[in-house]
Structures are given as C-alpha cells and as structure tokens.
Amino acid sequence: MKNIVISGTNMVSEEIAKSLANSLSAELCKPIYKVFPDGESYVRLPCNVKDSKAIVVQSLINPQDKSIIEAILLGDAIKESGAKDQILITPYLAYSRQDKVFLEGEPISIRGILKIFSDYYNILATIEIHKEDSLKFFNKKAINIRPYTYMAEKIGFDSKNIAVLSPDIGAIDRAKILSSYLNCEYDYFIKARDRITGEITMQTKELDVKGKDIIVVDDIISTGGTILKATQILKNQGARNIYVMVSHALLLENAEEKLFSNGVNKIYAANTLPKKSKVDYIDVGPLIAKNLSAYLD
Amino acid sequence: MKNIVISGTNMVSEEIAKSLANSLSAELCKPIYKVFPDGESYVRLPCNVKDSKAIVVQSLINPQDKSIIEAILLGDAIKESGAKDQILITPYLAYSRQDKVFLEGEPISIRGILKIFSDYYNILATIEIHKEDSLKFFNKKAINIRPYTYMAEKIGFDSKNIAVLSPDIGAIDRAKILSSYLNCEYDYFIKARDRITGEITMQTKELDVKGKDIIVVDDIISTGGTILKATQILKNQGARNIYVMVSHALLLENAEEKLFSNGVNKIYAANTLPKKSKVDYIDVGPLIAKNLSAYLD
Questions:
Q1: Could you give the CA distance from residue A249 to residue A267 in angstroms, rounded to a whole number?
Q2: Model confidence at B197, in pLDDT bands (50, 70, 90)?
Q3: pLDDT, tens digit, for every residue of B151-162?
Q4: Sheet holding B85-90, edge to edge
Q5: Do A40 and B115 touch (CB under 8 A)?
Q6: Does residue B1 carry a pLDDT above 80?
Q7: Keywords, A to Z (chains A, B) (predicted)?
Q8: For chain B, which residues make up each domain, given as ranges?
Q9: Structure confidence by residue, pLDDT tens digits, A241-292
Q10: In chain A, where does DSSP find H-type helix?
Q11: 3-state secondary structure of B169
Q12: Rounded to an integer, what distance in angstroms lies between the CA atom of residue A252 and that of residue B294?
C-alpha cells in the first residue's frame, strides 16, 4: 500500500497538503476542480488511488459549506476509485463552536458535519477543535492535534521572564500545556459582570504580569474582542511584550489592526485559514505528518 | 401525531412550503436563519416539532452547497427536538446530473448528496430528478414526483392540433406521459454528427410538425442550447406555436432571452428555482401534498 496526499480545493489546503506530502515522502495529488455555470462544484482525481491510503486535506474555510461538500465529493471519488483507507484532514473544522443546543430548537451543527464525514472517511484529524469532546460525533477514528508546543518550538521564545495566560478558565489546559513546555508560570483571566452597570470586567487570577512577556493562548481568534480586552488590562498592569498564540486566526472585521494598534506585539497562528498580512504563521504540515504516522504505511 | 411543514432557508423553499402546508392543512414553521460574520450558517426552529412528522422543504438552489448544509442542520435540529419522522422535500435536487463516473477519478456527486441526507431523513421527495435510478443512493424511502400532467392540467392547453416532442430518445418517457394526458402524438429528436464537419444536426424522427402547436418537454433547461436548436428546426418546418415545458428552469446566462427571441412562445416551469421574468410558473405545493399524503397522518 502507498500513501497519497490529495490537496483540497482551496489555497490553504494546497499549502498544507504539499507540506504534509513532503513530510511523509508521499505522492501529492492535486484534483481537477471547477465550478459549473449553475454553481455546482466538480472535482476529479488525476491520480491513481487504488489500494492506497488516501489522505484528503481540506481546511473548511469560507465558504465553509462549499468546502464541506467538496470534501464529500473528494471522499466519494477516492472511494469510487478504490482507495483502501480514506483519511480526512480538516486543519480548520468549521461549525465546531455550535457544539451544543444553546437555545431550544437549535441543531448541534458540528454533529451534523462530523456525521456526514463519517459516511466517507474512516479517519479524521483536525488541528485543535473548539471542544475535543465534539469529536465523538465522528463515528470512526478521530484525532485532535494540539499545536501549541510545536508552535512554541518553531517560534523559539527566548525570554527569561515569560508567562502564559488563558482568556478564561475553560481553556486553561492550553495554557498548562504551553507553560509546561516553556517551563514558566501560567494563569487565567476571571471575568466578572458588574451588578450595577452590567459591564464585564476581566482580571488575572493571581499572576503579577508587571515587566513580564505574556503569551495569551487560545484555540481561535474571531473578532478578537476578548483578547483585545485582555491586552489592555495586561498593558495597564505593566506587562512588557504581549504575544498571542492561536490555532486559528479568523481575525474578522478589523480585528488584526485593532489588536496590533492596542499593544499586541505578535500574533502567532497555525496556517489553517487564509493569511492576514501581519500574522506570523507556523506550518502544521510536519505536525500532522507526525500525528498520522501510526495510521500510515 | 401532527404534520409540520418547515420552510427552508431560501425564497423558493418558503413559497413551496407555504403552499404545501396550506394543501395539507398543516402547521407552517419558518426557521430563524442567519449567517455568522465568519460565514457559517445558523438555523433554529421556533416551533415545537416533538413527536410530529416534520417536513423540511429545501430547494437546493444556488449556492447549492449552502442549501445542502442548511438541510443537514435543519435535519439535526428536528431530530434533536424529537420529531418522529423526518421528511425532506428537495423541489430541485442539485448535483443530480453528475450521476455516474463520466471520466475516471470523478465522484458520483448525487450519491454523495443523497447519502448524507440519509443520515437525517427517512423520506425524501423531489420534483423530477434527472435520472430516477439515482434515488437508489438515498438509503430510505425516496419519491420522484413527475409534474408534467399536473402542469398540463394547470396550464389547460386548448389547441386541437398539438404534439409533444422530447429533445432526445433518453427522455422520451416524459413526452409519452404528457401526450397520453393530452391525447396527442409524440415524437423525439434524433441527433446526428456530420462525419465531415463535425456539426451536430437534429431532426424529428417522423412527426410532421407543420401547422402544429408543439410542446417540447424536458426535465431541465440549463443554458438552453438543445431547446434553442430544436426551436429553430421546428420553426423551419412550419410549426405554429412552440411551448417549452420543464420541471426546472435554470435558464443560465441569457437563455431566457435567446429562446423567446428565437420563436419560443411560452416557457412553463415548476416553481423549483428562482424566478425569471418571462417564464410561467406552476406551483407544485399541491402536487407534493398529494404525493406525500400516504406517508402523513
């Protein structure tokens, strides 16, 4: 059996697929892809995947629904063409924040997406899903790859006076992992709502940030509101440099500009989403290769 | 148990859902629907579907992939909310023309789409799928609704000198059904390729169209190339009026203008797709109701 990496239908997926194939010394296959005049997607594999372990890399970027359906079409094509194993890598797994019913009448969107992928793939790997528990909705083998120590290794922080902060207690394990690797302190922000004004305030639980270089770590930056607030507090309390490290940098609206102009020194992100000009990206191809190796030839 | 019709997330689906609910004297439920800033879809049911037969109407119009994923999200929501039966009506079923592997390495796209719907729905009904045989890819009960006699009844053709033509022999059963209802002749076009010029010519097999009103019937008009050619031939041979009757009027690019300016008198279509200004639409809500009644309370 051979391993073949099939790059998905967007530029983000192409970049990671190329790097993954390189790390695995595997064949790279780039599908023929077009959109018909009526708007339907068309894919075709120009490579022979018969009896192979076929690894489709498709980051579920905007337009997410198109990315999802194309992953289904690629799954059908590799199955039809006789691949022995169908592996799907979704560096960014869309819909993972709708992971429960918040209001009656809602779907669990991530369940829907993972369920339909189960029809076509027997292994799924993703970079840092919002809640790891959601992967139970994929009926086969699912792998959550946490990139934080890998990213820290590639970045090579050399500060002697560094600490890691989580924006809230729910995400504290990410801070723990990173601080353990960097051998430094970690803490989290406590959010409180003022009972009179309704204003939400944040403060670090106990860490004294004065003069320290702080890494704020999270799975995703969306509009950046929480991280902006955290930055302002850290600056007021005398933090020296502020680094933001996330798996997925959506940075919607003007989040990038807002963060940099308010005191963030660097934003580090995995290369799972379309690139923003001032963000430092860490290629996760080699990391995915390492996490997949047990399942490959 | 009660029947609830849930209108899909586009205007085409809303119109049919309203008409279907009316025909069934069923409750109509309009989901709350929005798109998040990052591009993900959100749906929520504002109605109680517990223990009901929940009928989701979602025409898979452009953007097709968004329409498909929203049908999955609605499926998850009605299942989560305790519906006893999940029924999906896709008046227009996208991807049904990629129903086999034409070139090695292709998916059977319609298989992929129907397979994922099988995860959430136990009955699926559609208006005239391109090839009825494709419905085998839906693992539960699937219903293909042929609208031609219903449409003819609503239109009320009163010509004494009418005939039905199919653009090719593959679609001849549509012409047979319609001619049987109208009690008139039918025929089909034979396509031939000139061995020297490569030009494709069309001619009616044996019908003399001179002075006749002709109904050209097909499942779908896309760019309208074949029907345009048919119209020109029919006009040259002295046909009187030319009516086009299809289930699905995509009418891409300038097809509508092209057909009307080249001799087509009327285009009749089911209301399964976004409306074009000069097409006469026949609402298929009551027809769907009739075809579903055996499965409802």
A1: 9
A2: confident
A3: 999 999 988 899
A4: B27-29, B3-7, B53-57, B85-90, B123-127, B141-145
A5: no
A6: no
A7: ATP-binding, Cytoplasm, Kinase, Magnesium, Metal-binding, Nucleotide biosynthesis, Nucleotide-binding, Transferase
A8: 3-145, 149-282
A9: 999 999 999 999 999 999 999 999 999 999 999 999 999 999 999 999 999 9
A10: 11-24, 64-80, 109-118, 148-155, 172-182, 225-236, 255-261, 285-292
A11: helix
A12: 49
User: Residue B6 — φ and ψ, nearest 5°?
Assistant: -110, 115
ipTM over 0.85 threshold: yes
- pLDDT per residue over A160-195, tens digit each? 899 999 999 988 999 999 999 999 999 999 988 888
Handedness of CA A266, A267, A269, A274 (dihedral sign): negative
A231 in a known ligand binding site = no
B43 contacts B70 by C-beta, under 8 angstroms: yes
State the catalytic residue, choosing from B191, B229, B258, B290: B191
Closest CA to A99 of A11, A201, A14, A219: A219
Report how many Cβ contacts below 8 Å link chain A to chain B: 145
Q: Is 3.40.50.720 the CATH number for B3-145?
A: no
Query: Rounded to 5 degrees, what angle do the CA atoms A27, A138, A292 make?
Result: 30
Contact: A112, B75; criterion CB under 8 Å = yes
Is residue B58 pLDDT above 90, yes or no?
yes
Q: Is the peptide bond between A63 and the residue preceding it cis, with omega within 30 degrees of 0?
A: yes
Token pair belonging to A64? 């997410």
CATH architecture of A149-282: 3-Layer(aba) Sandwich (3.40)
The candidate with the shortest Cα–Cα distance to B84, out of B58, B48, B50, B124, is: B50
CB B230 within 8 A of CB B221: no
- Name residue B225's amino acid: G
Q: Which tokens hold the place of A98?
A: 């709708």
Judge whether B191 counts as a catalytic residue.
Answer: yes
Length of chain B, in residues: 297
Confidence at residue B195, expressed as pLDDT on a 0 to 100 scale: 85
